[in-house]
Amino acid sequence: MEASDRVLLIAVDDSEDSQKAFMWAVDNLYREGDQIHLVHVVPRLAFAAQYGVPPVDFVPAAENSSYESAVQRAEQFIIDRFVRALPVTIKSPVVHIIKSEVDTESVGHVLCKKADELDAIGIVMASHNKGRMAEFFLGSVTQYCTHHSKRPIIIVPTPNSSSSSSKGGGGGVSKGAIRNREQQQCQQQQQQQRRRRSSTPFA
Prior knowledge:
The protein has a six-stranded mixed β-sheet, sandwiched between helices. Residues 51-62 and 162-185 have low confidence and may be disordered. The chain has a single domain (7-178), classed as 3-Layer(aba) Sandwich (Rossmann fold). It is built from six helices and six strands; from the N terminus they run E-H-E-H-H-E-H-E-H-E-E-H. It is an alpha/beta fold. It is globular.
């Protein structure tokens, strides 16, 4: 069998949701010879708020220092969560850590642009289970990519995700969002119960 030369682009962050989405992509999308690219976007004002550092417009030196620290942390969690999780038979992924503005349009644009540059077969993203601003921000990035990407978007839901979506584009065929396994099992059990009731003879 001829080895594949496809590119799998996976958006990652330091979360279990992202790690599970990564492993799903490896188990279900990866073909021998594929090149895995991991993309982590560091939003400028987002990490400034997270780490207590003012925006770049006010203190450039502090912001630059914080950005370098954020990059170092990203490099470490990418190694710990993703690179080390790969089977030895799969070559190490290419890692992209990209600085962006805070707005969701900029972050989403970075992901879509990188996918186009790499001619990726699609963008794999996790559906995060987070609250407040994090949920709003990450959800908005996902929506932006879904509506603007020329390539399929594969959204991997977490067990407690309320919804998921997928979009195909650019002639590609979307793999679709993954259905929750627990929900599938519940539906199967209900169907089996209906069959038993329908096959039970009347007394």
